[in-house]
User: What shape does this take?
Amino acid sequence: MLEGKRILLIITGSIAAYKSLELIRLLTKAGASVEGLLTDGGKQFVTPLSVETLTGKKAHVEMWDGESYQMNHIELSRRADLVVVAPATADFISKMIHGRGDDLASTVMLAKNKPVILGPSMNVEMWENPAFKRNLEAAQADGAAVVPPQIDELACGEVGVGKMAEPAALFDAIQSHFALAASLEGKRAIVTAGATIERIDSVRYISNFSSGKQGNAIALSLAEAGASVTLVAGVNCENAPPHPNLASLTVESAEDMRRVVHESLPADIFVGCAAVCDFKVANRSDRKIKKDQGLDHHFEENPDIARSIGTLEPQHRPQVVVGFAAETDHLIENAQKKLSSKGCDLIVANDVGGGAVFGKNENTASFVTQNAVQDLEPMSKKNLGQAIVAWVAARLKG
Ligand code: C5P
Assistant: This one.
């Protein structure tokens, strides 16, 4: 499965670095070609010699090591298919998201043009630290996949989340990455994301809490799988993750979103992840309504974008249409109704009761199809994006 795949493994300063040696062994045994890069911290825990012995290649440690004409910081990611940072310390993730480049590893991350998988490793308080959480969220928003650490007794003696995932779990994540990598080559996909907004007057609007994180994660996973993706996102949606296969268009209202989605056809895949406002203000004002005028609004139903795609004539309908059902009650029952009323092949159902989903990085969902309901484990939005892409790819294969 990993035959001929080229992996750049960055080892940063954590006791978990010894497990990275085992990861190299698993990867090379599976046919991958691994190049190692150690930070100064990484070198404190494992030696470049160990890494070189297992990879069979020079281990990189210095920015300027006599090969400078090759510009190591650029070359290293160019000749890799994937960059894995394991262990990834809190400090290294912080450097990554701030665009720092004060050593070879951080400069490689700045200059990289390849997908990234992180295997964080740290003390539980560091993992729970709000500053670190913000950084990890930012790294994920920038497109990094995270293999979460485990709950256990940590090397420092404290108990909690922080222990780096086992080499086998990192290996599985790397393998799934490559399994998806070329699965949608040549396919075109449209994804809607985030909240639409409906104007009340020239300064006010109605909307909802959707952040667009899940739609962004799906669009990125589709792009990483080789599809050419058009992301149609609400104005307040988080920034689209950067990827050469991904073009992002911003829209305001449901009407705009419907128009842009239809203009973006034809497509092989449609994923409706946007939280589209069901109603628009029929008598909206072009001027600011004064307080003493009071509010007296009438609403009209918006077009259902997912339905308008799912029920297209077969020659125009994307082969795979995926919708979402965000519900607070009777989740599966409502998802099953949406599956047929919107003409979808898959409904991703998630319980949004108690603010458990909007704006968060985690999601708990069920896949609802004509014949089955599959409950998924809680996972990051990025991982759910990959699971949806795996489902889509399998469906397209028939
Ligand atoms: O009917 P409901 O809004 O719960 O359906 C959710 C699904 O339908 C999501 O996939 C959403 O993106 C899509 N939808 C849409 N246009 C609407 C309303 C919902 O595409 N006007």
The longest helix spans residues 381-397. The longest strand covers residues 320-327. The CA atoms of residues 266 and 316 lie 7 Å apart.
